[in-house]
Amino acid sequence: MPRFYCFMALTIAVSTLSGADTVHCPPTIEVKQQLAAPVPGWSVTSDGMPHQLAGLTFFDGKPEDKASLAPDNNVVVKGKSVASWTFGVGDRPIWVACQYAGTNVVLTRELPKSTRTCLVTYTAGVTIAGLPVIEKVDCK
What we know:
This protein is mainly β. The chain has 1 helix and 9 strands.
């Protein structure tokens, strides 16, 4: 899909996110990537495009512990996929990780201890980096 259409789809999707949400991944990030070693005969350049939000994962504990949580339920409502997670009361904190297209940079943060559920709504038929566009995140 041309970058313009991906950017427009993301802009529309992110515009529905509320600033009051406990989970609000930045829609884009800028990173400085470089080669670990030069490649003979090639020059390095950057396209200057920001990296768009492509995915979101919840974790039981810090993301480094690799305890990602699968959704408890996934339903289709009005042509949109809605995934839901329910978090129990426990000692281990729940974390969220925001993944971005075209980079391995991931933003993570702990959810407030009061968070018990999260619903993530995905736009049908529109993807970024092969993943459905996140339209809305609602955590309570």
